[in-house]
Design a protein that fits this description.
By secondary structure, the protein is mainly beta. It contains 2 helices and 9 strands. It is 7% helix and 47% strand.
């Protein structure tokens, strides 16, 4: 399985390439007052507003700094019933692509954060999968992806 590897604090995490729509350079975000503290802001993607989550804040760490290798990973976030909406993930230090052996994936044995999945040995250090479907609590998802009246 191919994955995109990035850092959250000192540790390495990854996303399945199939879950990623695009990888964009970090850009200026519109602040969203009263949004959950891990929401970095709102980006303009060709005229469409897309919420962006700061993965470091979501993991309980200091807000990400913007470095040369900071990226916004654009994913199609599942809303249920087959519907999806675009969601940006602000990732500090995007490292690149690695291939993981599916047979090497194992449960971490720790249920610290619901969005953290299985672990596997990677190049140089252990990697942990980020589970897009479990990234946001239902109330946060409802807040970020409100239905617009017709």
């Amino acid at each position: 399985m191919k994955v995109l590897v990035f850092s959250i604090g000192p540790d390495r995490y990854c996303l399945r390439l199939g879950a990623i729509a695009r990888v964009l350079p970090a850009l200026e975000l519109k602040h969203l007052p009263l949004a959950p503290w891990f929401v970095a802001g709102l980006m303009d993607l060709h005229g469409a507003p897309v919420p962006v989550i700061d993965l470091s804040r979501l993991a309980g760490m200091a807000p990400e700094q913007v470095w040369f290798d900071t990226r916004i990973i654009l994913v199609d976030y599942p809303l249920g019933g087959g519907a999806t909406r675009q969601l940006g993930l602000l990732a500090e230090h995007v490292i690149g692509i690695e291939t993981l052996d599916d047979n090497a994936l194992a449960d971490s044995g720790v249920k610290a954060a619901p969005f953290l999945g299985q672990v596997a040995p990677g190049t140089g250090a252990m990697l942990q999968l980020v589970d897009i479907e479990r990234l946001l609590a239902p109330e946060v998802s409802a807040q970020l992806f409100q239905e617009t009246p017709a």
